Amino acid sequence: MFAAENGLRGDPRLEAISEAIRVVPHFPKQGIMFQDITTLLLDPKAFKDTVDIFVDRYRDMDISVVAGVEARGFMFGPSIALAIGAKFVPLSKPRKLPGKVISEAYELEYGTDCLEMHIGAVQPGERALVIDDLIATGGTFSAAIRLLGTVQA
Ligand SMILES: O=P(O)(O)OC[C@H]1O[C@H](OP(=O)(O)OP(=O)(O)O)[C@H](O)[C@@H]1O
Ligand SMILES: Nc1ncnc2[nH]cnc12
Question: Which part of the chain is the Phosphoribosyltransferase domain (predicted)?
Answer without folding.
Answer: 45-152
